[in-house]
Amino acid sequence: MKKILFILLGCIALSSCGAGSANQISAGNITNYGYVLADGGDIYYTKVAVREMNYYSNIYKYNTVSEKDEIIAEVEADYFNEMNAYLTLHDGYLYFLPYFLHESQKESSPNIYRVKPDGENIEPEALFENDISCTFMQIKDGVLYYYDDGEETLYSMNPDGTNRRAVCNAVMDSISIDGGSVYFADYELLYHVSLKGGEPELIFDFSALDEAVSLKDIIISGEYIYYLEYDGARVGRIRTDGKGRENIYTAEPGGYLEFFNVDADKIYIVIDGYGKEDAYAILEMNAGGGEVKTVVSDAENFGDILPLAIWGDTIYFSGMYRFEPTDSKYVWFTVNKSGGNLTAWQPFSVER
Description:
Blueprint: H1 27-31, E1 37-39, E2 42-51, E3 54-63, E4 69-73, E5 76-77, E6 83-90, E7 93-100, E8 113-115, E9 125-126, E10 134-140, E11 143-148, E12 153-157, E13 165-169, E14 174-178, E15 181-186, E16 189-194, E17 201-205, E18 215-221, E19 224-229, E20 234-239, E21 246-250, E22 256-263, E23 266-274, E24 279-286, E25 293-298, E26 302-305, E27 309-311, E28 314-321, E29 330-336, E30 343-347, E31 349-351
Parallel strand pairs: 2-31
Antiparallel strand pairs: 1-2, 2-3, 3-4, 3-5, 6-7, 7-8, 8-9, 10-11, 11-12, 12-13, 14-15, 15-16, 16-17, 18-19, 19-20, 20-21, 22-23, 23-24, 24-25, 26-28, 27-28, 28-29, 29-30
C-alpha cells in the first residue's frame, strides 16, 4: 500500500447541511483529525494556494446557499499537501492545528492557531510564543485540551492560552474525550483518566489475548469504546468498564481497513482491497455488527481515500481521482450516507 502524502476528510453536502452546533464535534470526527467543519450552511476546509512556487495551506469557508468561497486564514506551508486539522469554532474564533499531515512528512503541529472567521484579517494568531509538538486538540465545555507528543503530556487551558496545566503524562497514540474522562491507547493498552488529572487506569490489556493486537484509533460513543486494530484487520468495541469486548468487522484476505468513523448507531469504514476488483470502498454497518452495506466503491477512479468526516447525512472526504474533473489530482468529495453517486466538490490545490 502506497504511503499517502495527502489527507482526507469529509464535508457536508452542497445542497444541505445538518451540522447543528459546530462546537459539538463528534468524537468520530475528532479521531479523524477534524479536517472539515460544517456549521449551518458554511463548510470550513483546507485548500492549498500556489503562488510563485510558494505554498499556502489556507482555510476557506464555502457557503452552500450563495455557493461563494471565502478565504478565512492563510498559512504559508512547506509542502503542497499540508493540512489544517481539528477545526473548531468557539466564542467567535476558528481554532486549528496548522501543517498537520496524517502519516506523512509532518505528523505534529508547532502551535495552535485561531482566527476570526469573518475574512477581514486572515493572518491567524498563535496561542504559544515557543514551538510545541501538538498532535491533538479539542475544546470541550469551554476548556481547550491538547496533547504534546514531545513532552508526552495532555494539557488543559483556557482557549485564549492562559491558565495552562498538565492533566496527565502518558504515551497517547489515540485520544477520545467523553464526559469527564479522556480515553487513550498506548499500543496494546487501553486507559482512561479524569480530565481533572490523576493516574491513568487500565481498561483492557490487548496483549493478554491469544492474538495480541495494537490499537491504531479509538472512538468513544456512549458506553462503548470502538477501536481499529493497527494491522488493519479488524474493527471492534469494548465497554468503558473493560467488559463485553467483541469484533464488529474483519477484513477479508487482501483487504486493509484504513480508517473508521462512528455516527450514532452506525460505523463507517474505509477499506483498501475490497471485493474481487480490489477497490477502495466505504462500508456501513450497525455498531454491534451485522449486515454490511457498501456506501460507495470504485476500482477504476480512486487511488486513495483518507479519513472520513460525517456531518448530518453526508460523508466528506478527499481522494486521489485518476480521471480528474478539476485541475488537482486530489479532490474533495461528498457522498450521502445512504449511498449513491460521489460528488466532486472542490479541487484540493489551485494556482493563485
